[in-house]
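Problem 3 from the worked examples.
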Amino acid sequence: ISDQKPLGCWSVKHGQILTCPVVCNFETHEYIAVHDDKVLRIWKNEDINLDKAFKATDLVLVLQLSADVYRIHSLPGGGPVVLFRGGGVRTLDVLLEAPQQEIENVISDEVIRWSGAFMEGQQLVLIFTTEKDGDFFVYVQKPKLSSLHKYKLEQQESSKPLCFTGHITNQTVTLLCLYSNDSVYQVLIPLQQDTEEEEEEEILPKSLLLNFSVPGTVLKGTSLVVLDKDHVAVLGSLAVPGKEPRECLSIWNTKFQTLQTSKELPLGTSGQLWCYEENFFLIHGKVLTVIMYKCETSSLAAAVGKLKDSQNSDVSSFVNWNTLEDEELVVSFQSQESVALKAESKMNLRSRRSTVAKVQPETLSVGQLLLNLKDASTYVLETELRQLMSKPPTPDLQATIGCVITALTDRCKRNPKYYPQNFLLELVETRDLSYSLCPDLMAVALEKKDMHLLQICLERFPDIPEEVTYACLKAFLSISEAHLQNIDVNLDSVICYIDVECGDKEVKTEIVENGFSAEMDQDMCDTKIPKETQSWSAGESCPVGLQKAALLNAVLHSAYTETFLLPHLKNLPAQQAILFLRYLYYLYVKCSEKVNTTLPGIRSPTINQIMDWMCLLLDAHFTVMVMLPEAKELLSNLHKFVRAQVRFYSELNKIEGSLRELQRLNHLRESQTYSIEVLEII
């Protein structure tokens, strides 16, 4: 989440449908999914592609169950439990022993509307609600004790529950119900100790906990989560008479019936809200947004917004809205809206300082300042921005820098002649930035063909999308060596292992250290190479110049996920793919010259990075390379070299036992003793 980087992607076969959310088994670190209602699949994180894993490995477990699954719940310490659509509950361990066991039908003609799992001590408690003919029922079950209790919710005239949430405290289930009349009701259910089912269902009374009606507005909630015993968060739409509803996220104090803070979501949401470890997760526009929050101690002063704000106060802002404000700032600049409040870098709706009678330039928020400078001259813009960057660090410094870069890239788009290369380089080199803070920066750099800035971004940004990494690779391979001679590029990663003579040609070296030389056995590969093909072997010079090699090294250092990068690599032109593979092969041979297989220099590629990219490139273009005559010699050399390396390490493995015995004997000798010994290894 911190890097906004996808780490894995799994898919089922064509025609299959995932029918409930995937969960993690905290005890075994496995994922559990259900597709087509009855098929349970369990796999580990190492299985990169589920479709292949299902066919090629026994690590992925597939269970065909006898009844439809509604939801799987998994909690740390509680173990996964499976809730079936008929109301039956089984632990995962029980299902693994007998997948086809008969599942009882607990509910009759009822439809499950919500379910939740909670821990009471060491015991997992499962709660689910059902609906039948307008009536709502609550089931409380302890799977390991086979304890089931059924209750009926007290009816509410002219309104019905929209969503549920709850928690357990002191052997009592607190069920919160968001109703269609813009109110939250509370239902208390004591956990009973007996294990027998109730013969008669008990009617549960409810009490009004919260009403969302604010003077002049009505909040239509769609999702509700509990933050602590005194606070809830509601995602919904704010209805104002005469205006279109606006979606917003709000936090309410249930103890004092007050609105703590709220934030409009102009990009729209999916209506779903999740909460985990003091972080909100919601879909805002087209992205998954994470918002940090901190529940303060509930007090009357805090509830009515009268809590004093001072530097020595231990009370922090309730919600950090920076994530949302960064997204809105980008939207406001793209649409050139003049709403300054959208871009405030720090917002605290509970307490506002109003001691300044006259607004000075230094008191403007970052968003207001940037909007005021939108049409300023280049000199004025950069002067003001440098002053802004020179101020003492603040908690929201990262968001401020992201807003500044967004303002600069926006001006570059509107004015093709404007491009503050030095200022952008200074920001990227001196600040700890990420791609997500300035998503348009690399796109502008690609358009301006600013190879130096792209190199720095690739080396420093931890969250570059694979599509952008591919675009940089293609740009580096397509640019001419003559053009690169006039570009300032950081050569620290290549200058120590590419020896340059006049004319920028590398000194030819012979490779013998790790068991391979150009004159090694020629019978390792039967491929015959036409004489007219271009000669390029292990001992030849680097296939690219210093500048291009440094740029390609930056790509090798960029983080990626194979599943997302491979489709883009398949679009790389064949000649560029061959050139890149030649360079990777050159690096591979260079690494093998050294006993520790490490290239000298700063940020030089590692042997693992080189081999991973070689495998990726061959996977994406192997068929094409086999068909191209100019690639045959390269593939042949690569084949011979890899076979020589395998044979060399195989020979080392044969004498591993003898080497260990020598090491043991050295430890037994006295350190002062001097001797010369000849040991014959047979």
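Problem 4, a separate protein:
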Amino acid sequence: SLVVLFGATAGAYGAKLGSDERELILLVWQVVDLPSKKVGALHKSLVKADNLDLSDQCREVTGLTAEGLGKAEPLDQVLQQFSQLVSSDLKVLGRSSYTLCSDGQLLIRQVLHPEASKKNFLLSDCFYSFYDLRKEFHTCYPNSAAVKDQTIKTMAEYLGLGTDETEEDFGVWQVKTMVAIIFSMLSEGCNHIFTEPEAVKYKYETGAWLKLTLASYFFSFLCSSKSETVDSETVIRARGLPWQSSDQDIARFFKGLNIAKGGVALCLNAQGRRNGEALVRFVNSEQRDLALERHKHHMGSRYIEVYKATGEEFLKIAGGTSNEVAQFLSKENQVIIRMRGLPFTATQEDVLGFLGPECPVTGGKEGLLFVKYPDGRPTGDAFVLFSCEEYAQNALKKHKEILGKRYIELFRSTAAEVQQVVLNRYMSTPLIPTLPTPIIPVIPPPYTIATGSIRDCVRLRGLPYTAGIDDILEFMGDATGDIKPHGVHMVLNQQGRPSGDAFIQMKSADKAFMVAQKCHKKMMKDRYVEVFQCSGEEMNFVLMGGTLNRSGLSPPPCKLPCLSPPTYAAFQTAAVIPAEAAALYQPQALLPATRSPQASAAAPPTVTYYPAQTAQLYMNYTAYYPSPPVSPTTVGYIAAPPGAVAAAASATHSPILPQPGALVRMQGLPYNTGMKEILSFFQGYQYAPDDYNGLIQLSDQARSMLQAPKEWVCL
């Protein structure tokens, strides 16, 4: 038997059903016995939504009102009545089992499953298998319209059935017409058989999806993983995720859609911390297209952006692995927990003892994976397998408990995160680099970036994230002729993506004032953009990472003492950058100058360095922002090539930074540590210079920026 099911929400109707997250307000159904071609009673039930504010389209199409819905039952009770009434109708027809049949995928996948998930109740088994009448109709009548273009009305017209919707109440006509279509498909001319229902996965299956070889670690990364291919039509990128979200949370957000096994890959930054994005791989392109309709749906109080992604991007995140990781992830349906902050001397026995008998690890020691650097030193991270959710929850209760003298952080994790973290440590560089390219000497060009207090610039705030230079120029209209050459500067976030801000240098303060008056709150695409007049000094401040608000200017992170990331072997040709902008990047702005008896009273010329991509940075300045406390990052600057440093040293007596490799960073120091204790710690090693100015204590402001305990930098 089939149960023909039709529904409507308080919002969009038709092809956009469920795309606006509105709740279900109507269910209509009827049992159809296929062998005897008999039908049960037709049932119509209103559903009380939490939000009874109906859209104009809903009121017009359905004829329902908020007052009428206010007297209805909530969804969970309506579904209980649905099960009882269907069972009664089946008993009358002499049947016991049934499968749902709906007009397309949307009602089941995009409405019922997401709403039940948000309201924390389970759907009965019948909602995990259903027939899509549009697909069945196209199979029976191959010459009919494509599946995506089918509707109940077009199917009825193709068969010559009556299509006057005004004769019946909304929902009743739809179900009666669907039943008539099914009987036409069962007629002697067609003899259609319903054999392959659509399936909705009960739960997301974790685990590594790649077929792994038993080759060496490095060979596996280069050869095995990268030879795999992923269909780009099945992958999406979810952005704006809570930092604590796990793969199961993401699967719940896409409830009703079938995610491929191991198809959730949480993206990490260069420090191995989650960056609020994930790549999700679905079983086919149809499921991916439905996922894109959940753009800006909510996970808790946050809306999630959903965009198309490529198979290559997914492989970069989920593709790298090793034999050790493959063996660790070979156990199916395990819950993975990540431990962070372990003592470097911690053993497997220590970790098992810390977790205790209330949360046994799968396979004992085999269920532990310590993350190590290429030289074998521990990183303080480990991954643990648990056989069920109960054990994992018990483990998470130990978050920030003490092991040895350190507190341990515990988080939910995924198979893709295991692969990324381990591979990142092994390769010593991130899978997806976020650091600048090597820093090289700068040559002043003919163009200059404005400085000073003259308010000849404008700031654009609230730009669409997809907006580019052309969109800004179109937005400016006739005022584009008053923009200085190379005067458009996009502000990017730390991941290199648009932050929604931009600065524009105008030819005069009057022109900037006129643009601010004319374009303020003017629409660009689907958003209004705020336009403010500002000075070149304020613009440079924000481009350097500072903030500009009603309270005034907040210092940019580049004004703080910062550390150098790993150096690079190859250097590119010199880039060109305005001299005024180069003045902002003097080495003295990064680290305090070392006292030297040879220093002359007159300040000698300095050598300025900036990444090679600054050749394009006339329109693309990067502003670095600190990550939330859950996922801290550090802001770094790359040292200049040794040859450039030597040339600068020969040209001036001014003290310069050490060559790459001459800096070490100390973390985890006691808060009362002084210079004497650090010098004692490094006894036997040569440090520079003799007056101990090589020790640079990070200020409180820098520590809050780096979100780390008391630290020193030693030269």
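Solution to problem 4. Residues 75-93 form the longest helix (19 residues). Residues 578 and 645 are 21 Å apart (CA to CA).
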